[in-house]
Amino acid sequence: MLRDITIGQYYPANSPIHSLDPRVKLLGTMVFLISLFVNDTVYGYIIATVFLAVCIKVSKVPFKYMVKGLKAILFLLVFSAIFTVFFTDGKVLFELGFIKITDNGLIRGAKVIVRLIYLIMGSSLMTLTTTPTDIADGLEKAFRPLSYIKVPVHDVAMMMSIAFRFIPILTEETDKIMKAQMARGADFETGNFLKRAKGMIPLIVPLVVSAVKRAMDLATAMEARCYRGGDGRTKMKPLKYKGRDYTAYIILAVYLGTMILVEILL
Amino acid sequence: MFGKKKKATASEALHLEKPDYTHIVSVSGLVHEFVDTDEEGKEVDRFRAVDNVSLDVEPGDFIAILGHNGSGKSTLAKHINAILMPTEGTVYVAGMDTKDDKNLWSIRQQAGMVFQNPDNQIIATIVEEDVGFGPENLGVPTDEIWERVEKSLNAVGMIEYRHHSPTKLSGGQKQRVAIAGIMAMKPKCIVLDEPTAMLDPNGRKEVLATLRELNRQEKVTIILITHYMDEVICADKVFVMDNGKIALKGTPREVFSNVDKIKGLGLDVPQVTEIAHKLKKKGAEFEDGVLTIDEFVEQLEKQLKQQPLQQEKLRLSESDSIINKPNEQTDVENVNTADNAENIIMTLDHINYTYSADTAFRIHALKDINLKLYEGQFIGIIGHTGSGKSTLIQHLNGLIKAESGRLLFRDKNIYDEDFVMPELRKKVGLVFQYPEYQLFEATVLEDVMFGPKNLGKSDEEAKQTAIEALKAVGADESLWDKSPFELSGGQKRRVAIAGVLAMETEVLILDEPTAALDPKGRDEILSLINNLHRERKITIILVSHSMEDVAKYADRIIVMNKGQVAYDGTPDEVFTYYKELEEIGLAAPQVTYLVAELRKRNIALSNHVTTVDRAVRELSGVLEVSADA
Q1: What ipTM did this prediction achieve?
Q2: Which of A154, A247, B223, B420 could disulfide-link to B191, CB 3.0 to 4.6 Å?
């Protein structure tokens, strides 16, 4: 039941997007997200749609994987859409008691939904085409300058990649503990919120205990393999920009430039 | 910065260099004390885990350190890797004192360490990146990391998995990756702390074969810490630890000559060694420390030749009467149950189950399972990892629902809409592997009360049931108010079993209840289960990959393979197929192989022999020594 979460799931394929440097993809995702907010015109949305569609096509990731990620935020989508629709002033189209639906409200509601969907799809595309280790490496290198002002960049990146490594292990463990408690008559599904929250204790306590034990074991194992932080470490797979990474940067710049120009000119 | 850096390029020459030390590891007068302090830092308790231990390891040796849990063997191992510092005494690794801070990283590079839990020591999400982790930490240049990773993965036979995710590998494969990760640091010595405790027999074999190979081919010194006796037979030297001290040392043969002493230390000896020892006590002529089946057969035949008449008589008398002699109690019980339809407690009727049914990863976990389980049986289910045995038992208490087929509990189909599932969960208790992971309450007693309370019992009633269950598993009253997390591994497991028993279970299913326990803990849990079976008349379903355990206690064995029932019968019936069992990755108890070998040489033994005691009894007859001595 917990295996449906798609965030952080890598889809292995051999595509130009997969082989890009993770830093390019991280920046690309940022650029795409920003572009959604700087441009609020119809043309803007069309350009963004085309850009996203082309990226998805090139990445060879099946479209249904993108949609899967949306399920998780379905509630958020509906919620923000309703809020925007109900609480925007404009020409009233429909009124019932305190509920008012306006033309501006509908338009803004639609925009909010499209933006949120694109936001999620854009980030999913990045996580689906980049291995967790690469994401961590990319972040580490991209934020390296911050380490001069004592930000523990290496440590955070190491923590991230370890977290990714342990997600499947802890997911499986959750499943197992849940079943073990169910065999002792525990009930995780029925009852009101309070009862269900209380019912989680037999699941959460053992899970935390085990996670702490794993963390301690892992720390010992890392020390035994001479890990002592980022200083003096070399990389098996150092990040190096290649020709296609520069091309990608140019495409990104052109895309963002067009979006800004369209917003200003139209 | 590091001594090894300049050597790194001359990788091949590494082992040919003349070392400036004679012992790769030299421990003298080592004492390690764990000190418990209270909040103010005042000492409240002091525990001497290692007590005046001295040992020397020659370069290229294969050393085994044996001992039960808590004997101090893991503490000793952590000293060799400089994870712990001596309280007294000294530890030298490759001529470097572990107390000297500046040696720390060179020591850890020279003496790599592999731990028990395969999941908790793999750092990266891709196999090759994990193997590269050590060299990265040592600051090895990128090109050389790739070389080392490839060489190490080749050495442990895992090169084809280099791009895989560790989560998808078996336990044995993960441990081989962990070993490769150490090899990539070019150590002179590898210390392994119970590397096989959490693995199935196949995984154990894989890991041991890898270690032997590395020892022979790469001349790496191996220090293997274990409580499995059969793993140490190939060692050059064996040290047995007890109570922080070295209790026995010598070659495997020397050590195994002390069968009684080893048993007294809570450890096992190989089955042939035990049989030879017991026969010797009865007056037969065996040398001390018989280690292999071949040795046993040779010595037995020598004795038979000395009594020619005897031999003649026996060879001729290899009659059907012996072979068909019923296997005492087990068969009697089968007669009682097998033909009595009223005693059927569960019926599995054409059960099918598929994992991830709607995806490309679909696995047919169970294929058309038909079984009748009888009340009062002690059933052993065996099968290698992935054979479907875990899926099968989860069906039995409704945690997994079959895709098709019927599952009857006392004539009621549990898939009928009006079936009360909680009632089934109450009657059919399931103890998962490593059940101690389900403990969560503040005290032992409250934890055991969790089940009965879920059944709607009042606190008082739940307490009564819990107390009864705790008594049944032999958990001492002094433990009841303790936190379950303070208990030892074996105690935790007892409490966890009590937690399931308190559901007023009629059928108790246990999934690998002895996993990662030492021989003493294992025997305690197994005899506890056997008592529950005999005294409380609980039907037991024991899932295990230890054939020895199953053969000793079960009266019926079900062998699972590829989601199907491969064999179903009494232990002696099933173990007659020992060759077929081997083909599907299982092994019959060693005694089965011994008996088969002896029968091949026309020595009259029945094929019902599946336990040490039975073998001793029958062989006593052959050798004409007193069977009752």
Answers
A1: 0.84
A2: B223
